[in-house]
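G., before I forget:
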Amino acid sequence: MTAQILAVIIFVLMFLLIVSEKIERHIVTLLCAAATLILVFGLCMHDGRAIVETLNVGGIFKTGFWYAPGSAEESSVGINWATIIFIAGMMIMVEGMAKAGFFRWLCIAIASFVRYRVIPIFLTFMVMSAVLAMFIDSITVILFLAAVTVELAQMLKFDPVPMILSEIFCANLGGSATMCGDPPNIIVGTSLGYSFADFITNTGVIAGISLVFIVLYFFLCFRKPLRSGGGTADPSTFPKPSDAIKDKKGFIVSCVIFAMAIALLVTHAMTGLTVAFIGLFIALVTLAAAGRDMLKLIKKLDYKTLLFFVGLFVVVGGLEQTGILEIAADFIGRISGGNMYLMVAIIVWVSGIASAFVDNIPFAATMIPIIRGLSDIPGVNLAVLAWALSMGTDVGGSATPIGASANVVGTSVAAREGHPIGWGKYCRYMFPATLIVMLISMLFIWFRYI
Amino acid sequence: MKQQLIIAVGREFGSGGHEVAEILAQRFNIPFYDSNLLEEVAAHKNVDAAGLTKYDERPRFFGVYRHVHGYSNSPAENIAHIQFKYLRTMAEEGRPFVIVGRCAEEVLADFGCVVSVFILGDEHRKIERVAKKYGVRPDEARNMLLLNDKKRKAYHNYHCKGKWGDSRNYELSINSSRIGVESTADIIEMYIREKYSRD
């Protein structure tokens, strides 16, 4: 009982400290992880096995961690090293692509393709945002997209805010479509053993349908300000896509590596290569191709985010080992009475509402053992709950300016260029859009799976 | 004065710091910036100034905003950074000016041409000034005083290492209630001329 209370106190404290931003979040999770290991597992439980299971280092040395032919990847408890290695690999790849000018080139190429007309740019950038976010972290997608949008807005004389808001939403939505699109999906996939194909054929379909509705929704919301704002600009001042490429050889190499990463991810259920393997492989190829710039790429690795994940998984492991998450699963099971409709609704909406206000990564990590516990109830399908959790956490974050990292980065880029976006302006358009997608997700899951 | 001169004026609400800064700008014949700084920034960025001024010198509220990789979704914080960047650019370009507030004493601390001043005042004098200037009752003036100083302090201390009004962060700290606005400006002017005559 003492261990359970302590594990909950540490978990709540971790959340509060993350929200307060007084201490960097990776230090918060690492300190809370140390407290979990020493106080909960050591002093209260005297359980060395719990420590070993939560640190989960042994798993890395098993063949199944890197290569799992013909079967789903091993599901695990404690630190999800596969997620951490995969995210590190993708970070290195994305850094290489950004350095070569890939993202800016893509944005300018698309704007040029639609002849720098405002409404077509608006529509194509939304789709591009969603598609890129399927494979690349939404922060990077929005960082480049929002910067180019502001630049085009100055040139073509339109208000960039509607476009940036739409791009943010579509980036979060696109992230929900694949296993590698958003950290909660990577955690869900690696923890529960789902593949890229599993995600794209389930959450991918929901995201695709939602994207159609969302593009229409934002078009109806913003067509007037965007049409009225577009001025006449001198075509000779339009940027050329080729000017965005800083290093031609690096650009070609980064395109090839990106294509390779997509191919490996799409086929990983068939090849048996795990996401940990793909992450490591892509990182090594990017580093090898970088040559002399290898060290620069390594130095730019966002180690703070990786350490944040390490600490987070240990704290959630504390809740898991002490049985708190089983209690939470029992509670949800009881209030839903084993009714799948109700259970899906609870998971979609609770995940969505929580993710709108708190970081969706710790939330998803906490919910995974809960839905695993719920799947013990006869008639409850774990996969259905996993899709509900993914959609809720990925999409719910769009509702408020603090719900997802892409929202913070996108609104910040806009504000730094003189277009501040407060809570009111943000929520007026993004909250209804979030409700639309969460409703579509819930109804889709109800009708397709139950 | 041939050398570049930047005067950074911090002030308590109702102390007459704004007027002191204006007088100094006239005497040294250099541009004066207060809330009009954002108008210039807006013109420079080709955006609507009204959209920026509502976030000027506003503190950041706890829990409502987040940071991700150095980016913040707080409009007030971003507007503050735009102003800081603009101030540094002006200073780098060698432009002389007087700037009121905006954490200028710390933002421009690396520039040797900056003279930083903090103007404070006695509470009853500040209440009198505010009541007269805004046509409000003394109790209302007192509330305005408390509220504005609280906001300024929160804004300053969020963005700066040095504390707002701490005399160690400024070259001069003067209580304008004791000698009046004009004489306060006289003393600062005298200090600046003396300092520059030694360079």
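The CA atoms of residues 91 and 111 of chain B lie 7 Å apart. Chain B has a mean pLDDT of 91.

More on Monday.
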